[in-house]
Design a protein that fits this description.
The chain is of the alpha/beta class. Helix content is 32%, strand content 20%. It is globular, with a radius of gyration of 16 Å.
Length: 220
């Protein structure tokens, strides 16, 4: 299974975002992680459809949209129209999770399902064959720069076991507190899509990205 780096632009400098995205792409990052926060499902407010539209076409990277919003079904079609390649919704935010996943697929976009640190992994079991990706939050969603929650390792292992027992090859994405110092453990636990914000965009972006990619390639 391919190992993928998804830099989170929540930590990017929007004055020079295009240049920063170009650097991450040249250095090997295959995805761009796009965190949408509404100030209700999570405390913070980030950015939305106009920003996504402005990014589409400036990079060949997969635009990986993570909706941390109440009733994400309201926005799925618009985000798909604005260029999302993958849309992830939170299990905790959907009144009808199956309906949300079906709506994503109906837009011709890959579907992801995310859970917060306090949500049991078992709640994903009915949907394991319904989505292309499952996102384990390794921090409480809403703010960048938080430390990785150690219990997340077992949650990743548990989810990978559940998928393997059913012969499902879905991606496991992990988001929150991931740096060069702990990404190997995250990969060893069973994740294959790695989100990092400050680990990529703080400091030398090219070197940070290249160092992540060097570690990821060891696990392919």
């Amino acid at each position: 299974m391919k190992r993928i780096l998804a830099p989170s632009i929540l930590s990017a400098d929007f004055k020079i975002l295009g240049e920063q995205l170009r650097i991450t792409e040249e250095a090997g990052a295959q995805y761009i992680h796009f965190d949408v926060m509404d100030g209700m499902f999570v405390p913070s407010i980030s950015f939305g459809m106009p920003v996504l539209s402005s990014i589409k076409g400036t990079t060949a990277q997969v635009l990986d949209v993570h909706l941390m919003v109440v009733e994400p079904e309201r926005y799925i079609e618009e985000f798909a129209k604005c260029g999302a390649d993958s849309i992830t919704v939170h299990q905790e935010a959907c009144e009808d999770l199956q309906k949300a996943v079906d709506l994503i697929h109906g837009c011709g976009v890959k579907a992801g399902i995310s859970i917060k640190p306090g949500t049991p992994v078992e709640t994903l079991i009915p949907y394991l064959d319904q989505a292309e990706m499952f996102l384990i939050m390794s921090v409480e969603p809403g703010f960048g720069g938080q430390p990785f929650i150690p219990e997340s390792f077992e949650r990743i292992r548990q989810l990978r076991r559940l998928l393997e027992e059913r012969g499902i090859e879905a991606d496991i994405e992990v988001d929150g507190g991931i740096y060069h110092s702990n990404v190997a453990e995250v990969l060893e636990a069973g994740a294959n899509v790695i989100v990092s914000g400050s680990g990529v965009f703080k400091g030398d972006i090219r070197k940070n990205t290249e160092d992540f990619m060097e570690i990821l390639r060891r696990y392919e």
